[in-house]
Amino acid sequence: MKPETQQKMPPNDTRSTESVFLSADDLSHRYRITKAGVWKWQRQGKLPPADFKVSQTLRWSLAAIEEWEANIKATMPGHRINCLPALPDTPAQD
Fold first, then answer.
1. Tell me, what's the pLDDT at 18?
2. Residue 1 neighbours by CB under 8 Å, 6+ apart
3. What is the enclosing helix (H) or strand (E) of 8?
4. Domains, the chain, ordered by start
5. Beta-sheet strand order (sheet of 57-61)
6. 34 half-sphere exposure, CB direction, 13 A CA radius
7. pTM of the model
């Protein structure tokens, strides 16, 4: 999955974030860390549990990752864990 597909989907997109899964490579691009960093976060319990494993590769649902990011933003305002990018705020209404 390319990093640009990891962004929040527009409201008219019929796909659900529940059906989008991210690999360690996707997460490394998302958080600007190495894949080894992703595995370290996973071992340390800093990431939500992976949803399933496909041929030795863990996959996380985009919905779970976005929920985890929202929880970090809500519980630690202004704090960034390691390389966690600034999360987008709610889009401005025109």
1. 63
2. 20, 21, 22, 23, 26
3. none
4. 16-75 (1.10.10)
5. 21-22, 57-61, 52-54
6. 3
7. 0.64
